[in-house]
Write a structure and sequence with these properties.
Structural class: alpha/beta
Largest sheet: 5 strands, mixed
Order of helices and strands: HEHEHEHHHHEE
Helix content: 25-40%
Shape: globular
Strand order of the largest sheet: 2-1-3-4-5
Distance between the termini: 54 Å
CATH class of one domain: Alpha Beta
CATH topology of one domain: Beta-carbonic Anhydrase, Chain A
Strand content: 15-25%
CATH superfamily of one domain: Carbonic anhydrase
């Protein structure tokens, strides 16, 4: 049985047995908070538990490294939607120690793409189009610095309400300990 088949079989039982009922909530976050964090598997349950957050408490946006790369990309758009449409009054950017993005080497990733069949013509086309893959795919050296950068991207965004506090934290994926990087109230 494929992974997709397993998921769909489980889901059918989940719905039939009404196992969803404990998770029923609205689309508006009870704690009026939106979090940008990493897609790391260790944070799926650890992060909300370490912050005493339950289903319905917060909006969560995830990407590789909790990094905002572009001021008008989908991550920033999601944060703006959370603030203006979904009643989030604060923003948390939460990176983590031992992040995979800290180890990403764009040259190595491009070689892995080639090994999986992405052609040299594709890379030439992207380069001709002005896309610097080395820059776009690169990781970061310091998680606290990366979190600070993302916090400032949000704080300085021309469309962000200047009264919305934007905080930066780093979590230990082993223990759940949170370290404050930027206090949005100051």
């Amino acid at each position: 049985m494929s992974l997709l088949s397993e998921i769909l079989t489980f889901n059918k039982e989940f719905v039939q047995e009404k196992q969803y009922e404990p998770y029923v909530t609205t689309k508006f976050p009870d704690k009026k908070l939106v979090i940008l964090t990493c897609m790391d598997t260790r944070l799926l349950e650890l992060l909300p538990k370490s912050m005493n957050m339950n289903n319905g408490d917060v909006k969560v946006v995830r990407n590789a490294g909790a990094v905002i790369m572009h001021p008008f990309g989908s991550i920033m758009r999601s944060l703006l939607v959370a603030v203006y449409e979904l009643q989030a009054d604060e923003v948390l950017i939460i990176g983590h120690h031992d992040c995979g993005m800290g180890a990403v080497n764009s040259h190595d990733m491009i070689e892995k793409m080639k090994a999986r069949g992405i052609t040299e013509d594709t890379f030439d086309t992207l380069q001709y189009s002005g896309i610097d893959l080395q820059e776009w795919l690169k990781g970061f050296d310091d998680v606290a610095e990366s979190v600070s950068h993302s916090v400032e991207m949000v704080r300085q965004h021309p469309l962000m309400d200047k009264n919305v506090p934007v905080h930066g934290l780093v979590i230990d994926p082993g223990t759940g300990q949170l370290d404050l990087v930027k206090d949005g109230y100051k």
